[in-house]
């Protein structure tokens, strides 16, 4: 059985358009390669009620939930306490994290004292599992309710910590990653719709994506699944049926 996942992106800056979310795309790409199916992405603002509603819903429906954002030192960083409230958990300072923040602060400026705002970044739902997969980063990935992984919103740190979970996630998946073939065609989408429907199966997903302002390519078709031989067999049939040719999407950057 395929392991399922969901993502909750948290932050007013995403909903207002100030910041572009790249974390969900990075997560989707990684999970695809691990054979874990990302089923839902929700974006909520910095509101306790909305965060509680989202994580409860996603946690009850999917095997793994990843959150991104809202774990900094300021008043609008409320992810930890909101998720604690969702499951009636206490909030407790983790001494190892507190000491690490204090050490980093002293190293940068020996005359700066710890404040309650520094302590906020070391105060987590309790009980929870604290994962420290990277020896040089003591800020943990906090796991609540067994399947909610709380991650930062800063893309570089999100990616670094998410990458550290790969061995654990691969063990949970216990399957090969998904495999994808892409096909370009000069045929219109409506003209190939019946062919796509006929070749689509429960295990092999076929997607079609119109291309505008391109004289040579009208549609990009994707064929994906975990069985490489099935994907290749259907992709080969489809290529012939729609008079297509192999296509490779340009890689997306993660800023």
UniProtKB/TrEMBL annotation:
This is MoaB/Mog domain-containing protein. GO terms for biological process: flavin-containing compound metabolic process. Residues 6-172 form the MoaB/Mog domain. It comes from the Eukaryota. Transmembrane segments: none annotated. GO terms for molecular function: FAD diphosphatase activity. PANTHER family: MOLYBDOPTERIN BINDING DOMAIN PROTEIN (AFU_ORTHOLOGUE AFUA_5G11210).
